[in-house]
Amino acid sequence: MKIALLLCALCLVPLEGTILFVKRGMSAKINCGVHIRNQNVEWTFGDKRSLIVRLNGKTGASNKGKFPNIHVKRSGEHLEIPNVGVGDLGSYICKVDHTEYSHRLYIIEASVSPSGDVPLGSAASLHCQTSGDPKPQVEWLRPGGGSAPSSGQVQLSSVTLEDAGIWTCRISKDKETLHQETVSLRVQSLRPTVPPSTPRDLSVSRCPHCGTNLQPGQTEGGKVGGSPKDGSPLWGLSLWVWLAAGAGGLVLILLVVLVILVRRRNRRMKRRVHKMRTTRQPLKPNEYCHCNSAVLRPPQGRPRDKTKPVAKQQR
């Protein structure tokens, strides 16, 4: 008997489901927590169990409550809440047959002030706040690691470069992390501003001692300033720029000369070919080659046999 009462009590206690944290104005999707297939489903809201929708798994008939902005899937497996506001916060209970699953919805807001670049040494503050009951634990984690002692708000009186980076707002319950929200703190370092140098007038410079006018780029004593030998740029350009310009000009001149020579050569070849075509005439009959027939004729008569001298006999 006691076991039956215990099981009945467990059936009446809703099982803890998911805890959702969404930003204000965003949409939220809450799953029932179990796969539903041809089963009776009932969604309720708040501690008063206000009816959202009741679905009959066999017939498919539905009975909706006074929550027109909440959309429920046809099977009742999950519901969607668009444009979440303060009135949507609380508990949502999904009852499938005789089993209940309890879910809770919170609104989270994390921000940094000022929102833009914070000058080095100025003040800044970070805010992290949750709306909903019961209140969870809120703490800030620094960019380099470690927690900042706060109850959802961090005040930085003098911002340093170590404070720049990603700050994390961690929501936890019983040392269990439920949600994390991040914000970025950008610190602008102050660099000394160098006044723009006024351009030097090189057109005419005056010698304060001799009272004579100098030529452009010429200093006192008759020396021309800005020569590459003393390391100063000539006319505002470095030595490498002048070398590159000179090499480029030399290559351009060589290319022009080569093009001119090639064009002249082609013209001479065309003239020579044209002259050979215009001056060439057919050969006359008496200008053809006559071979010496005597050389090719075979010898006439029998060739004489050369008798060898008879050697004298010795007596």
Automatic annotation (TrEMBL):
Gene3D superfamilies from the UniProt entry: Immunoglobulins
Domain (Ig-like) ranges: 14-113, 121-184
Keyword Cell membrane part of the UniProt annotation: no
Superkingdom, taxonomy of origin: Eukaryota
Keywords assigned: Immunoglobulin domain, Membrane, Signal, Transmembrane, Transmembrane helix
Protein name: CD4
PANTHER family the record matches: T-CELL SURFACE GLYCOPROTEIN CD4
Coiled coil: none
Segments traversing the membrane: 239-262
Segment forming the signal sequence: 1-17
Entry-linked InterPro entries: Ig-like_dom, Ig-like_dom_sf, Ig-like_fold, Ig_sub, Ig_sub2, Immunoglobulin_dom, Tcell_CD4_Cterm
Gene name per UniProt: CD4
